Amino acid sequence: MHKPTLRRIATAAAIATAGALVITGCSSGSSASSIDKTAPKTLSGTVSLWHFFTGREAGVVKKAVQGFEKENPKVTVEIHGGQDDEKLQKAISSGQNIDVGLSYSTAIVGSFCSSGAFRDLGAYIKRDDVDLSDIPKAVRGYTAYKGTRCTLPALADVSALMYNKTAMAAAGITSPPKTLDELEADGLKMTTYNADGSIKQLGFNPLIDFYENSPEHFAPMIDGTWLDSKGNSEIGTSAGWKKLIEWQKGFVDKIGYAKLKAFTSGLGQEFAADNAFQTGQVAMQIDGEYRSAFIADQKPDLDYGTAPTPVMDGLGHYGSTYIAGNVAGIAKGSKNPELAWALLKYLSTNTDAQVIMGNGLKNIPTITSALDSPKLEVDDNYKTFVEAAKNENTITSPATTDGAAYIGTFTKMWQAYQANGGNLSAQLKTLDKNIDDANTLAGP
Fold first, then answer.
1. Structure pTM?
2. SS3 for the chain, per residue?
3. pLDDT (average), residues 394-420
């Protein structure tokens, strides 16, 4: 599997730095006045697609592209695989002839839209009467920036709870937790210790920096929001975020921060075969739909289940999730914008193309018609993620020109608090100031 988009956004600061390559030397890529009044009746020529997939996964993308070529026999798509975001950004900034670029992260949307690195798609969408209502609300949100839609979605990752059925049964637990109180109680019940007091098996690891434990993936627990309508941080003034941080810190303290860190340091890498959930060392964890593919390949005998992320009573909406994903746009220097638009529209809005990629990559389609398609391969565990993606309360995080770096700032503050405690209200106030100062420096 490719590196998941869910985790990518946690490195927003690094993405923002690379994004400066695009921002410097980019004028507006919006070309609304230059597009034809009607779409071409017949498409012909060559169009390029840059994407980050490699190996087997690149073959899945190629299969989806072949559907486009079959519909448009006079068109040839030149595919450039293995092009990560940094390579894509440098190529666009240097004026290389790129038509469609596929990114693994929503974090680029703010910089690419505001700088014109990706063209404004609004005129194409209006001209061709493209119905965006098939794209779930949260996904529509993360593919635009301040009213400018310069990207369309191409699969997503969502988070949910995964649980070890054997460990749960051994602890006498008959159903997965739905609330944070239940998650904590079940997690403590399934935690066992060695003779020296060290952790033998952990029911749930509450550390905010463990695997997919991050502000984004904890946000659905409280229906958490990030920025107000003016782009200022509202994390620090949110009663929900404060309650969630206090709950998490209390959970950490019940086991012991030092004890948790010692245990975690001995666990396998998240995207390796010795992932702690796959080895049984951790009985429950928040993870993405891609984990099912890892398990099928690396630990096929693991008896596990999936369920929506538990929520805080009165704040979260059970069944919802956090969603982010791959986005694609037309590069500002495209010499074949009509072909680029046709290819982009096909990959993002064609039901069969989305199903082919969803089945092959085991990520989540980003149009409802594909999520509901009988051709989509959905087992009980994958179904949890599909249903969460369709949930009307599912959320994402807003784009900023610095690559949503506020999430990284929030994570560092949370890490410090779980380790050292202190005056949480004061730390949250400082967090808001730091985020707002950074956003001001980053520009509109």
1. 0.90
2. CCCCHHHHHHHHHHHHHHHHHHHCCCCCCCCHHHCCCCCCCCCCEEEEEECCCCHHHHHHHHHHHHHHHHHCCCEEEEEECCCCHHHHHHHHHCCCCCCEEEECCHHHHHHHHHHCCECCCHHHHHHCCCCHHHCCHHHHHHCCECCECCCEEEEEEEEEEEEEHHHHHHCCCCCCCCEHHHHHHHHHHCCEECCCCCEEEEEECCCCCCCCCCHHHHHHHCCCCCECCCCCECCCCCHHHHHHHHHHHHHHHHHCHHHHHHHHHCCCCCCCCCCHHHHCCEEEEEEECHHHHHHHHHCCCCCEEEECCCECCCCCCCCCCEEEEEEEEEECCCCCHHHHHHHHHHHHHCHHHHHHHHHHHCCECCCHHHHCCCCCCCCHHHHHHHHHHHCCCCECCCCCCCCCHHHHHHHHHHHHHHHHCCCHHHHHHHHHHHHHHHHHHHCC
3. 95
